[in-house]
Structures are given as structure tokens and as C-alpha cells.
Amino acid sequence: MVNASAQKIVKVGAFNFYPAIFEDEDGKVKGFYVDALAEIEKEEHIKFVYLYGSWNEGLERIKNGEIDIMTSVAFTDERATFMDYTQTPLLTVWGEVYLLPSSPIDGILNLEGKKIAVMKSDINGMHLKELTKKLSIDCQYSEAGDFEEVFQLIASGQVDAGVVNNTFGASKYDEFGLRSSGIVFNPFDIYFTVKKGKNAEILSLLNKYLKKWKYDRNSVYNISRQKWSHEKIGAIEIIPEWLNRIIYLSIILLIISTTFIALLRFQVKKAVGRVKKSESRFKAFMDNTPAYVYIKNKNLNHTYRNKMVDKLTGKIEDDAITSAKTIFDPAIAKLIEDTDNRILNFEARELNIIYSCKIDGKKAWLHDYKFLLEIPNEEIAIGGIAIDITSLKETQEKLNNAKLKAEESDKLKTAFLQNMSHEIRTPLNAIIGFSGVLDKPGIPKEKKKSFISIIKNSSNQLLSIVSDILTISSLETKQEKLNLNSVFINTIIDDLFSIYKEQAIKKDISLIAEKNLSDEDSLIKSDKTKITQILSNLITNALKFTLKGTIKFGYRLINDEIEFYVNDSGVGIPAEQHKKIFYRFHQVESLREINHDGTGLGLSISKGFTELLGGKIWLQSEPGKGSNFYFTIPYQPINDIKKPATNLKPNNTLATVLVAEDIESNYVLIKELLSRQSLKLIHVSNGKEAVEICKTNKQIDLILMDIKMPVMDGYTAAKLIKEDNPSLPIIAQTAYVLDHEYKNYNEPAFDDFITKPIDETTLIEKVLKYIDPKKTRNN
Question: Where on the phi/psi map is residue 404: left (φ > 0), alpha (ψ -120 to 50), or beta?
Fold first, then answer.
């Protein structure tokens, strides 16, 4: 509680933000903020005094210490330098573009070349400026003192459109004869603030009351919000033009029908013949009207209904007595009859209701307009016209669903970017940090060895992250391709068991590999790299989230499909997350508490690879009972059991290696990695030089050919060299890492390939693969 003697008067910055806070015609500051603060006044024995001005003046006043509290402040880094914020927000709002009803603007691209009013220093205007700049939309902005001036500028035609937040707009747009454009953007929270480092007691007091009010529907804050906003807070009211036309048509039909009824009753008294003729015209008109038209008597039975009404329940005899009870479900019938009785009891002369029903066996929505029908010398009746608004409802539902999906996608992307920043910066920190430490004199040999190991591991970790990002990008842009070759499934299982058994032993987890086909039957046509990566992702996840117990992986043949599985006894996954877990950027929050590593792309990549292979992926899991992941691929056996030869080409007799590499540091690295081999290296910096030296030097044993080089690229150079010397082995070296790009290196121009960053062991194995071991020796 604030000490009354020390804090008797608290100055509040006020500006025109109807209905939250504004200056009324009597000169008093009012609104639901004021009502809420008045409640604190009564409880805490302090007095709030309001200094009214523009929004920008309020910011200057709190910066200069002229006021103690500022209301409705969105968080920015710049504002946080001179203001402290409450923990609990006042409202969540978003920016909205308003304009005249006759304006043709119906989307953000239509703002091109338009003049737009924004409130000075308002976050909504700032966000629209950023958005139009990013979209290269050229428009002119005019600053106003407050939101009301923005609406005045639009209403007077001085600007084409204006930006306010939705709370003010929903309450005031009708008063100025404006409409929402439907352009809404950037939801954000607004807060109470105090001067930076000052008024901590006031900030604590506001936090206490806001936290209590926000979750109490009957609190003074929530009751006052509804009172001032007339239930319109947050509403976006957009009436499509086609619906306006239907409403106008309905009104015209109503007038016509009323006129016809009056004329018909008058004609009955004069001549039966003329009545029948008028009735025939009336019936033809009404039966061809695209609306449900009816008249009810005081017993709520139809005295007239057009053919559209009959369609609601199928064919009905012309003289059948019908009412809401004979057409609709009991709950809807009661709603309709209650509104009918209100009209008959003169509680209202007209009413609008919206309800759902079945039309042709499908769910539909009707907007029913009812009115009191008074005809001379007749009992009062109820006239009505109902319009089918199913399309409008479905559109609204799609928009709401799209909005929810967009919000969820934004949250996932934000979380992904934050996680990715952490994942990338962590290994970079180790690489940069320990690289700098290695340069210091006097470091013991063992420490240097340890630091180098850390740098290597961090580099591999960073490479894995980049590979995941490139792979998911390739999948989403449909550029990922299959590299189909002969694959021994049993070999994949054996290799993965060897790779992961040490990790399992360290965690005291029993790792079991199962093979259900003979080596001969396990030879299939598929993409070995993608199968291996899917299983690796699943096994890695199982090891992350299994604290004890067993992990079992393998496959089984089911009809014409191979079903792979990875079963663990880990923490398990809630059922509601089973589909979402395969979405990109998605990570189950409860699992992140156990293990924070990873990009959140592994399962999304696995799903993409599985579908590319022609299969599907799914899981079975319960919290605390482990997880079972499954995926399938087509079983395409290969009868020829011959395994690929170890060497693709016979060894040559010379130990001279031509390195075509335009980046000097890359050549230096290759030279260092091969320094312990008895090899003669020749260096050229482009493809053209490589072609020329191969023509003059017939002693070259092997070529390491970079792909991207100036003057002539490596692929073109390799083809020219092969035309002259087809037996000379050429290994492509490239920074391209996507699977679909590997196809270039399977062309006759290349015998093999190696990817950058170059691994020492892989490089030596590839080089020695094409060189006679008698011509090399280890030093």
C-alpha cells in the first residue's frame, strides 16, 4: 500500500483514446481507465490528477518528470530507456486502417499512392510505415495530434485513409461515418508506465490491481470497459458490399410485399376477379424472390409462405398449417417464437435474429428480419424476410481460422528464430573464443589439443544446423530430389547401431537393433542417405528424451512396404501434439524442459523425406510410457546381390595430384591435410588453367576439381578434360550440400565428389582410392 502522507497526489498523462480515456464535453477526463483508477483512490487513499494533452505531449511529460503515470504505452526498446512498464498489460490491441464507405481500398496493396493519416509517435503508425516499406508500397503519411483528429482528416476527405488501434476505432468509426478497410496488423499489448527508476511503489500498486482485475469478470475494470465501449471492444465490423445489396433488396421486397398485401385486401372488397389476378402476380413475384418470405398470425402459424420456405423441410401441401415448430429443431423453434411474441406484445416493432438450420440436408445460416404487420380491419400479424448468409458465415469462420493459424505460425517462427539464434551462437562462441585462445603463447600441448577438439565439434555442430536449414528450405521449395541406388537395409541398421551404441552405453540405456530380412532380401532400390537421416533423427531424439530403459530400432516387411520403427521407453508425448510435432519449427514445450538442444526441424525433415520416398510417418505415444515412431517406404527388391566394388576405377601409377581451386586458403588447407602423404601437388586457380595443364602434363594422377571458379567453372573443365583423357579420375569438391545437386557429380565428367568443409579422413580416403598405394607412403 502506498504511504498516504508520502504520495497523496499522482499525476496521470491523459490523451484522446476513447473509450479508455478522453476529455468529455464538460471538460472532465473520463473513460474506463479513469473508473479503474478511481477504485484505487478509494482503496489506497490517494488522488489521481489528470494532465490532458496529445499522446506525444504525454511522452514528453513523463520523460521530463511532469507526470507520474502514462497510460496505453506499447513496449519499444527506445521507450524502455525512459519508462518502466507494469507486468500485466491493460489491453491487447492491433492497428487497423479506416476509410470512407465509398473508398475502393480493400487491401494493403491498394494503399499505393494514397495519403494516410497517423497519430504522431503512435506505434500503430510506425508499424504500418514499416510494413508498407517492406512491401515497397509508396504512400504519403500525414501526422495528427490524436486518433480523433485522424478520423476527422478521413471524414473531411483530406486523406484517403487513417490508422488507429482497434479499441478506439470500434467505438468511434460509426460516429464519423467511416468503415474498416479490413486491413489489420501487428497485435501488441499496451501498459501503464512510470518514469524510469522512479515511482516503484506506484508501479507495484498498479500491478497488484491489474492482476486482480484482469481475471475477474465483475471487476470495476471489466465492467467499466463494457459500459464505455457498448460491448464493441476489439470488434471488427466489416459488412461486405454484396450483403449491403441483399439487405437493400430485402427492404425493397419488404416494402413491395407490404404494398401488395394492402392492395390485395382492398381489391377483395371490390371484386373477386381482380383479387385473384393480383394474388397470382403477388405469388409469382414472391415465389421467384431469392429470400424466405412469410406472414404469421397471432397463433404463430404461417398465413403466407413462399416456395423458399417450403424448401426448408421439403414439399408441403398448400393448405398445410405450418409454423416454426413444424420446420425447425425445438431449440431454434423456441428462439423464433420468443422473438415473434415480443413483436406481438409490442415490445419491439422489428427484430433481427440469426440462427442455423438444415437446408437440403446441409447446415445453413439464416438472417431473419421480422416486423409488425398492421393492416386496416385485420388482426395484427408478423411479416418476415430471411436471407441465407451461409457463405458469409463460412467466410468469417475461414478468416478466423486463418487468423489463428497465422498467429500460431508467427509464434512458432519467433520461437524458432530465437532458438536458432541460440543454436548458432553457441558453437560460434566456442569456435571464435577458443580460436583466439590458441593464439596466446605458453598454452600447454594438452590444452591446445582439447581446445582444437572443442573447435572441431562446434564446427560440426554448426554445419549440422546449416544443413538442416538448407534441407528444410529445399523440401519446402520442392527442389529436394531422390538419389536412387542399390541399398542394403541391413547395412544401414548395422552402421547406425555402431554409431549410437557408445552414446547409449554412456546413458546406461539398452540399445537393440532388429533385422527381419536376409542380406540378400534387404537389397533394395532407394535413397540410402535419406533413409539413414530419417532413422538418425528418430534415434537421436529417442536418446535425448529417454532417461533410462531401452531403445529398439529396426524394420519389418509388411506386404509391399518396409516399415521402420524406433521404440523408446522415454518421457512420451501428449496426444494433442502427435500431428503438430512434425510441423516445421515446432518443439513440444514439455520436452524442451528436458533437453534444449536442436533446431526443431529434425522431424519435419524426416516427414518430408518419407513422403518424398513414397511413404508415410506417424507415432504412438503417451506421457510417461515412451514413444513409438514408424515410417514406411516402398519395398523394391534387387535380385543381383553383387555389392559395389571398393574402387570405382583401377589405381593409376602416378602420385601427382592437380588441385583446381580459386580460393588460396582452401588450397593451403588441402595441402596441409595431404602433407603426410607422399604426393606431388600442382595448383591452378580456374578451370581453363586445369584444361591447359592436363594437355601438356601427362603425369597427373588425379584431379581435385572445385566446381565454382572464375573464367571456367569446374563442371565445364571436367568435361573437356574427360574428352581428351577419359581414364583420368576427377573428384569434384564443392560447397553445395543439397542432395538434388549431387546428380551433377554422377555424370561421366566426375568419378567421385567431396563436400566442403572438407574432412581430413574423408579427403585422404577419396584420394588414396584412386592412387596406387605403392606410390604413396605415410611419414
Answer: alpha
**DSSP single-letter state for residue 70:** E
How does DSSP classify residue 108?
G
In this structure, how many other beta carbons lie within 10 angstroms of the beta carbon of residue 72? 23
- Residue 608: phi and psi, rounded to 5, are -65, -45
Backbone angles phi, psi at 98, to 5 degrees: -115, 155
Residues 498-513 as b or e (16 or more Cβ within 10 Å = b): eebeeebeeeebebeb
Helix, strand or coil for residue 156? Answer: coil
* Beta carbons within 8 Å of 427's beta carbon, 6+ residues apart: 458, 459, 461, 462, 465
CA 597 from chain centre, in angstroms, equals 22
pLDDT of 4 reads 44
Q: Please give the span between the terminal C-alpha atoms of the chain, in angstroms, as a whole number.
A: 81
Quote the pLDDT of residue 478: 75
Structure confidence at residue 274 (pLDDT): 66
CA-to-CA separations, 125 to 132, 142, 155, 165, in angstroms, rounded = 11, 10, 18, 9
Find the helix or strand (DSSP H, E) in which 386 lies: strand 381-388
Q: Which residues of the chain have pLDDT under 70?
A: 1-7, 229-251, 254, 257-258, 260-276, 278, 313-316, 318, 412, 415-423, 426, 461, 464, 584-600, 639-654, 735-747, 772-779
Model confidence, pTM: 0.37
d(CA 175, CA 276): 49
pLDDT given for residue 339 in this prediction: 92
Q: What was the pLDDT predicted at 689?
A: 93
pLDDT at 402: 84
330: which 3 cell numbers? 425445438
Query: How many CB atoms lie under 10 A from the CB of residue 323?
Result: 18
SS3 706: strand
Rounded Cα distance between 48 and 53, Å, is 16
Locate all alpha helices (DSSP H) within 330-481, ordered by sequence. 330-344, 390-438, 445-476
What does the pLDDT read at residue 464? 67
d(C-alpha 309, C-alpha 190), whole Å = 50
* CA-based torsion, 162, 163, 166, 171: positive or negative: negative
Integer Rg of the chain from CA: 38
